[in-house]
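Incident log, structure service

09:12 report received: a user says their structure output differs between two submissions of the same chain.
09:20 pulled the input from the user's history:
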Amino acid sequence: MVVFVEENIEELLESARATWKEPIVQEFLKKTRIDELVKVIGENFKVWPDDFIRSIDKSMKSYANCWAAASKAHSESGLYKKIVEAADIKSGLTVDLGCGSGGLLAELPDGWVGVDINNYSLQAAEQHVRSRGKSVERFSRSHISFDPDSGFILKPHPYLLETDFKKNILIADDLRTFQNTIRLLYNQGVKADTATFTMWGGFSNYLGVEFIDWIAKAWGKKEDNSLLLPERVLEYGPKICRQGGRLVFAVRTCKFEGPENLFAYDRKGRRIDVAEGLRSASRSGEEMIEKYKHLYELEDKGEIPVTVDENKFGLNVYPQAADYSQQETKELLDQVGIKNPPVAVRIYVLKVK
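09:34 re-ran on a clean worker, output below:
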């Protein structure tokens, strides 16, 4: 069982209060009509920005707890070990981008860096790898900042320490920019031998504080950020890995071969084509790799089948999962009679040119 400590909440609150008072922020809020925003996100936020930040912190903890449970099941099934073996990760510096609760890290040879924006996920990763007899140091402090293009953002503290890459390290970083990761490597004059990005698929985990998403909803708009994170990984891979180094890109897929259309209704009454959603989960990874193939030499390592326990729906393959919890996704599948979708992890190894 993961034990979470709310070690960062006070710093988040203090930085949010200070940021909230900045003239540029107040001007931004006037333009976005905060009264309309409140109508969209609910009236539970009586004290701004405190209640908003506490809600985000709670959401991050919930996500970390949910993924830790799913990751535990995948670890016990041997899935992460199979990924390491299939990708032939044996030695050298490995950077795991979006390491979550550390399932893959626990299977890697020592000398790795685990990267995630979620402080609670990094806590879970630390506890998991220590339970496997590995030592690790964690640096996961962050604060609230403001970006005119993204609203409030969760910004990690810069990592400036000298580093022995023979040790295992967990750091906080925003995977839209990789600033902390690149700073860590460049300050030591090295690049990674291997970078890993695993278990993504049909899944959008927006890395900011989702402030801009809620503002967009207030204006009746919703940006599609579903490809933001994996495309950033493919784009920044050559900055993180040395020439000849490898990016292991392990994508969740669902080889659904049922009817062309299967419609269900979500909790808001929206009509959803579940069949198309499941199929698109398999297409998206291939389409992104095609877009960035000029940066890499591609080797397809094939698929590892995954048995999904419907009570621990850990591989959320539905592409609009940013809008749905795992339980809500399961409800959609139940409506169309799909109990255990044929899920697999497809492994691509991309060698940096």
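09:41 both user submissions now match this output. Likely a transient worker issue. Closing.
09:42 reviewer note: Residues 202-227, 310-323 have pLDDT under 50 and may be disordered. The chain has one domain: 9-352.
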